[in-house]
Amino acid sequence: RDAENHPLVVEDLRKTFGGITAVDGASFSVAEGSLTGLIGPNGAGKSTTFNCITGVHTPTSGSVTFRGNDITGMAPHEIAQQGLVRTFQIARELPDMTVLENMMLAPKGQSGERLSYSLLPGLRDQVVAQEEELLDRAWQQLEFFEIDHLAEEYAGTLSGGQRKLLEMARALMTDPDMVLLDEPLAGVNPTLEEKLLDRIHELREMGNTFLFVEHDMDVIMDNCEHVIVMHQGKVLAEGTPEQVTSDDRVVEAYLGG
Ligand code: ADP
Ligand code: MG
């Protein structure tokens, strides 16, 4: 595979939990600037694959390479620093904090230890300037996803769809160049769904790459140029949406569960 045009390369990835094999030797790569779909029946290993790629889980074996760097087993914040982030199937906002506070938490949670700037007077100004820059970025993202009017609301009061928008906005705080989206449209009403998809295409035109787990085949058909199908922890098929949906093995995997 051409690493130059495929920023993410996953090779022979395996992840076991005790006796359960969640990912069983999956290999695939994602093309630069693409919106690639990752589909497969429930339990196929899609979320675990995302967890292994982004450092939430350490793979049992296999490798993950991003822009030519081996990121296998790195911590999530280290991987985020390289420009690769993900959203979670279940959005992870803190309900007792405001939307804006949640936005400000995202990059700090990823940047590691706190600085003890009391020792260095000049450093304090630097930290304040950084904080202001983050605040600017947070507002930009909230405006981009049209949830800036909710900035002062507690995240716990948001609708399911608004939570998904917040989850996306948070993921973009570190200015990543590739985003893994785990069912970003689940529980989102059709109006917000269209808004989210529009934003994804807009970001793509600006050069972002997306790997996208989605159950709705119509959404995959309409939005992805390439689809990877997982089944029982392995890649069963890949190709255009038309190719994979007319593949007998894929049809059988879905019917057979
Ligand atoms: P998908 O996202 O495709 O629905 P998952 O990656 O969530 O699939 O799950 C794949 C398999 O791994 C399932 O059988 C699931 O029960 C199992 N699994 C996932 N995470 C864990 C875990 N933390 N501990 C034990 N089993 C897990
Ligand atoms: Mg899942």
Automatic annotation (TrEMBL):
GO molecular-function terms, A-Z: ATP binding
Listed name of the protein: Probable branched-chain amino acid transport ATP-binding protein LivG
Role according to the record: Probable component of a branched-chain amino-acid transport system.
Domain ABC transporter: 8-257
Pfam name, any one: BCA_ABC_TP_C
Lipid biosynthesis among keywords: no
SUPFAM superfamilies with a match to the protein in the record: P-loop containing nucleoside triphosphate hydrolases
